[in-house]
Amino acid sequence: MKVAVYRKAHFNAAHRLYNKSWSQEKNDKVFGLCNNANWHGHNYELLVKVIGEINPDTGYVIDLKVLKDIIKEEVEERFDHKNLNLDCPEFENLNPSAENIAVVIYDLLRGRLDKCFEIQVRLYETERNFVEYPV
Ligand code: NI
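That is the input. Now the predicted structure with nickel (II) ion docked in place:
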């Protein structure tokens, strides 16, 4: 019997979307305001879903305190109040779009959580724009 548990988290970060190999004109056309050379920020909301069997000894799928601490260490401490393009090596050669940020976060969490869990990451860049990985 599998159950999904969720943990929400939050971080603020700045970024700029652009493709180094394109002209300024093409970057402006494709990315618009998100290509602002002086950066812009988002209040990112993260939803981490963990699916697993209920442990009969604890009644838990995963101890949410443990999940909270892993998200804090891997995501919040790494990205909160950072410029994703300049401060975070993960995005040195990767456009910090919501899609790419979600995949990076998934990989970081995947590395910390037991293989018996399925995980899924949902990242809100705004209240209305969000992405999910894996699908
Ligand atoms: Ni943006």
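Residues 15, 34, 40, 42 surround nickel (II) ion (CB under 6 Å).
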